């Protein structure tokens, strides 16, 4: 059965809706991108990412913030600063190691 691409209801690993234009992260490799197409084959829903041109099972994706993708692309191009990297990390992952000393 062929469905209209606009009527496919897709949800990520956490149950958040995925639509065309959503920014997502593939958990297995950390690949990020924007969803350009959704399709269903044999009961599995697939999302096409603009960054790789590959389809990913939506159950292995997590909806993410567009800023995280922008920062990642800038970092790969060598154009990112420290403040942008701090924005990318969840607060519990940011650790100041400036006062840590070795034993000895």
In short:
17% of the residues lie in helices and 29% in strands. The chain has helices at residues 66-76, 82-88, and strands spanning 10-11, 17-18, 23-26, 32-41, 44-49, 55-57, 61-63.
Provide structural commentary.
The chain has a domain at about 5-65: Roll (SH3 type barrels), CATH 2.30.30.1060. The protein starts with 9 loop residues before the first strand and ends in a 16-residue tail after the last helix. About 15% of the residues lie in helices and about 30% in strands. The chain has 2 helices and 7 strands; from the N terminus they run βββββββαα. The longest helix is centred in the last third of the chain and has 11 residues, at about 65-75. The strands form 2 sheets. It has a 5-stranded antiparallel sheet, with no helix packed on it. The protein has a two-stranded antiparallel ribbon with strand order 1-2. The protein is elongated and about 45 Å long. It has about 100 residues and is α+β, with helices and mostly antiparallel strands.
Shape: elongated
Task: Enumerate the spans where pLDDT stays under 50 for 5 or more consecutive residues.
Answer: none
Quick one: how many beta strands? 7
Main sheet strand line-up? 6-5-4-3-7
Q: Ends: how far apart?
A: 69 Å
Secondary structure: helix percent: 10-25%
CATH class of the domain at 5-65 reads Mainly Beta
- Characterize the largest beta sheet: strand count, sense, and whether it forms a barrel: 5 strands, antiparallel
Kindly provide the radius of gyration, computed on alpha-carbon positions and rounded to a whole number of angstroms: 17 Å
Report mean pLDDT, rounded to a whole number: 78
Oligomeric state, counting identical vs distinct chains: single chain
Structural class: alpha+beta
| CATH fold group of the domain at 5-65 | SH3 type barrels
Helix/strand order: EEEEEEEHH
Range of strand content? 25-35%
- CATH architecture annotation of the domain at 5-65: Roll
DSSP helical segment count? 2
């Amino acid at each position: 059965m062929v469905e209209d691409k606009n009527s496919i209801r897709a949800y990520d690993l956490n149950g958040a809706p995925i639509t065309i234009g959503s920014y997502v992260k593939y958990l297995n490799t950390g690949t990020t991108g924007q969803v350009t197409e959704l399709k269903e084959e044999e009961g599995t829903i697939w999302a096409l990412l603009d960054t790789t041109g590959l389809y990913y099972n939506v159950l292995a994706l997590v909806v993410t913030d567009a800023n995280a993708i922008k920062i990642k692309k800038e970092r790969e191009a060598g154009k990112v600063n420290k403040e942008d990297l701090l924005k990318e990390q969840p607060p519990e992952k940011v650790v100041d190691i400036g006062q840590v000393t070795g034993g000895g």
